[in-house]
């Protein structure tokens, strides 16, 4: 069994870096996710405590004092850090410029969704998962579609 400090690679692209004991995450370590986020924790026999999730853009999730997208302040994290764009130029996602959505697909936040195949791929077009009926319906109702994109770089006259 693995013990000491090490790296443990998991499909589909997650990686643990940290202390191991008896083949389990044990001690300080971080679980790096394929989307660029990370889950840093103090692990006790595989169970995390004193944990903090950091999104790929650097935003840290705080369960007690979460103020991001709370209904009062609807700015994206990049807008909080760098300010708003000039009037008439919309920022549609936290990424600026946003990813170009492949034809017939949706941007579901961690990648692109093809409703014909019901497959979600990451932004590098690597397989993430098959969407169940509930996720399919949510994506169709809520996410940006390739065919709805307008030229957001030009302000209205």
TrEMBL record:
GO terms for cellular component: motile cilium. Pfam families: MORN. Its main location: other. Keywords: Cell projection, Cilium, Flagellum, Repeat. It comes from the Eukaryota. Signal peptide: none annotated. It is found in: Cell projection, Cilium, Flagellum. This is MORN repeat-containing protein 5. It comes from Malurus elegans. The lineage of its organism: Eukaryota, Metazoa, Chordata, Craniata, Vertebrata.
């Amino acid at each position: 069994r693995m013990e000491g400090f090490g790296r443990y690679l998991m499909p589909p692209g997650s990686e643990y870096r940290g202390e191991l004991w008896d083949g389990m995450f044990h001690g300080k370590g971080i679980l790096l996710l394929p989307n660029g986020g990370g889950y840093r924790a103090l692990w006790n026999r595989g169970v995390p405590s004193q944990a903090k999730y950091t999104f790929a853009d650097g935003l840290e999730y705080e369960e007690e004092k979460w103020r991001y997208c709370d209904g009062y302040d609807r700015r994206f994290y990049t807008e909080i850090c760098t300010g708003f764009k000039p009037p008439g130029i919309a920022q549609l996602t936290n990424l600026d410029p946003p990813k170009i959505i492949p034809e017939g697909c949706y941007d579901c936040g961690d990648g692109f969704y093809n409703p014909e195949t019901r497959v979600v791929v990451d932004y590098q077009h690597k397989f993430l998962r098959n969407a169940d009926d509930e996720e399919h319906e949510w994506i169709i109702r809520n996410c940006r579609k390739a065919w709805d994109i307008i030229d957001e770089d030009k302000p209205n006259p």
